[in-house]
Amino acid sequence: MSTEKTDKEILENEMNLNSEETSSVSDNAGVEEEDSLTAEQKLELELSKEKDKFLRLFAEFENYKKRTSKERMDLFKTANQEVLQAMLPILDDFDRALVEIGKSEDDALLQGVSLIHEKFKSTLLSKGLEEVEVRAGDAFNADYAEAITQIPAASEALKGKIVDVLEKGYKLGDKIIRFPKVVIGN
């Protein structure tokens, strides 16, 4: 980190020096001045030009490295997005199956399906999938939920609020990959 700051400071100093040198001397005067300079001054001038080129190239390369590493991190975060989106209907089917099996008297079947559901859900969670928290009674926000329909609100308190959640929403990192589908009261 300290070498980056040092290199950046050097680059800024060199750029300031070079801009002062070039702004104070016009092109024609610079050619005439180069002829009147001693060999040592010419070498110093060439050296400063080469340093400037080097520092600009170095800064460009550092920016390139930062940009590509950021792009790579973004790619890794969303690389499995398509696979996770394909698994969401299966997760929904498991949720519906658990509700229906819960109505039956077969506890062994409910326990078996519940174990498989939890294992599947924990696997998806370990890959970065999170449920978007939306419940009935919450204020509707179009940035986090998709309104499927509106129904007359049972009370004034439910107007403009979520009445029912039809389909759960999920996000991968900070990006919502499926918006929750809700019914709102009007």
Describe the protein's architecture and organization.
The protein is built from five helices and six strands; from the N terminus they run αααααββββββ. It has helices at residues 2-24, 27-36, 39-78, 81-103, 107-126, and strands at 129-132, 146-151, 162-167, 169-172, 175-178, 181-185. Strands 1-4-5 form a three-stranded antiparallel sheet. It starts with a helix and ends with a strand.
Q: What topology does this entry show?
A:
Elements: H1 2-24, H2 27-36, H3 39-78, H4 81-103, H5 107-126, E1 129-132, E2 146-151, E3 162-167, E4 169-172, E5 175-178, E6 181-185
Parallel strand pairs: 2-6
Antiparallel strand pairs: 1-4, 3-6, 4-5
Helix pairs in contact: 1-3, 4-5
Q: Give unreliable regions as ranges.
A: 20-29
Biggest sheet, spatial arrangement of strands: 1-4-5
C-alpha-based Rg, rounded: 32 Å
- DSSP helical segment count: 5
Measured between the Cα atoms of the first and last residue, the distance is 56 Å
Class per helix and strand makeup = alpha+beta
Largest sheet: 3 strands, antiparallel
Q: How confident overall, as mean pLDDT?
A: 84
What order do the SSEs take from the amino end to the carboxyl end, as H and E?
Answer: HHHHHEEEEEE
The backbone outline, from C-alpha atoms, is elongated
Q: Provide the β-strand percentage band.
A: 15-25%
Query: How many strands appear in the DSSP assignment?
Result: 6
Number of domains: 3
Helix content: 55-70%
